[in-house]
Design brief:
This protein is an alpha/beta fold. It has two domains: 207 residues, TIM Barrel (Alpha-Beta Barrel); 128 residues, Lyase, Ornithine Decarboxylase, Chain A, domain 1 (Beta Barrel). Strands 2, 3, 4, 5, 6, 7, 8, 9, 10 and 11 form a ten-stranded mixed sheet that branches. Strands 1, 12, 15, 16, 17, 18, 19, 20 and 21 form a nine-stranded mixed sheet that branches. Strands 13-14 form a two-stranded antiparallel ribbon. A hairpin with a 2-residue loop joins strand 19 and strand 20. The protein is elongated and about 80 Å long.
Length: 384
């Protein structure tokens, strides 16, 4: 196991990511390709390294949230197609051309602004048209009581835009109850209806995609791309959520810190800010070199949440501080300064999944992984 000289660090297993790609492919139609979603620093795993790994292993299209994220990838040497899933401000339209990026044409009004800029600059801007089939977020609305088909067709007609694809997004593909299954199925039907109408009007729709991670796990569809994000990293939003498929994913991320100090305190001693923890007997306390500025939720304070030291679960006691926290190691022999502390990952026969932290703060793994801050360095295993 890589032992860092840092006070806290993350290790990302590149072999696990490549393994997960192959597991995703098993769930797809043979003609469907992967558009790798690496937004939010690849969900905390390191966007540039993850994207370069994937590009070197056959992934030819990426998706990010913003033009800033796209520029980060380009400056790191990513040359393949990048779709910007979110809004790009007008002041940054020029980057779409200069860096050969694909923009989300998220409304007719927005597409017209892009077309006007492209006309003035004598360029073409590439993009995919977003259709809102029930997510209620970005996209041209196309639902039962509001089918704006003419607006979609009008975007294809804008002379200075190159509409290379059309896509939508599932809102409840992770829910398998009858009502939500029907809702997702209807989103798919509406998307297919748009595509059919465009083809009947002799419009080249370009590539199509609608499946996010849970769309991949729970539905068999025949579109040109799927858009997995977390799945590439071996994680779902919540391991407790049932899915229809049985992939063999391997979590790519482990999270560590060091023991910085070990001391014995007597019964009645107070631990950390606020004096919210008082030792009930003589206890051996380890201070760990990580805190809420690194992404450890402050809600872990006195919560019953554990970390692993020498393969043993040790409870967090007292308030989590900005840069440090304390754990009870009374039952473990030979704990000393410099020992590795595992927050996420395996130590001997014990393992802590990211889900334990997510459940602690009543959120999903997507959120918890993104909370690991950039001051925690990422290290990457050597490819085998």
């Amino acid at each position: 196991m890589l032992q860092s000289k840092s006070r806290a660090w993350v290790v990302v297993d590149r072999n696990a990511i490549l393994h997960n790609v192959e597991e995703i492919k098993k769930l797809l139609d043979e003609k469907t390709k992967i558009m790798a979603v690496v937004k939010a620093n690849a969900y905390g795993h390191g966007d540039c390294v993850v994207a370069k790994l994937l590009e070197n292993n056959g992934i030819d299209t990426f998706a990010v949230s913003s033009v800033d994220e796209a520029l980060t990838l380009r400056r790191a040497g990513i040359t393949k197609d990048i779709l910007i899933l979110g809004y790009t401000p007008e002041v940054h339209f020029h980057f779409l051309v200069e860096e050969n990026l694909i923009q989300n044409f998220l409304s007719l009004e927005y597409a017209k602004k892009l077309d006007e800029f492209a006309a003035m600059s004598d360029v073409l801007i590439r993009g995919h048209i977003k259709v809102d089939t029930g997510m209620g977020r970005l996209g041209i609305r196309y639902v039962d009581d509001d089918k704006n088909y003419d607006a979609i067709r009008s975007v294809y007609a804008l002379p200075h835009l190159r509409s290379e694809g059309i896509f939508s997004h599932f809102s409840v593909a992770d829910e398998l109850d009858e009502d939500n299954l029907a809702y997702t199925a209807h989103q798919s039907e509406l998307f297919d209806e748009v595509i059919l109408r465009l083809k009947e009007d002799k419009i080249d729709v370009g590539c199509t995609h609608i499946q996010n991670s849970y769309g991949v796990l729970n539905y068999k569809m025949k579109h040109d791309y799927v858009r997995p994000g977390l799945l590439l990293l071996g994680v779902t939003s919540d391991r407790a959520i049932p899915i229809r498929s049985h992939p063999d994913f391997i979590p790519a991320l482990s999270w560590y810190a060091n023991v910085s100090c070990v001391k014995t305190v007597h019964a009645g001693s107070n631990i950390s800010y606020g004096r919210h923890y008082k030792a009930t007997s003589d206890q051996k306390i380890a201070t760990v070199s990580i805190g809420y500025a690194d992404g450890v939720p402050r809600a872990a304070s006195n919560s019953g949440m554990h970390v692993l030291i020498h393969g043993v679960r040790c409870p967090i006691i007292g308030n989590v501080c900005m840069d440090q926290m304390m754990v009870d190691v009374s039952g473990i022999d030979n704990v000393c300064e410099g020992d590795r502390v595992t927050l996420v990952g395996k130590d001997q026969d014990e393992v802590i999944f990211i889900d334990e932290w997510s459940q602690l703060i009543h959120t999903i793994n997507n959120d918890m992984l993104c909370r690991i801050t950039n001051r925690v360095p990422r290290f990457y295993t050597v490819l085998k």
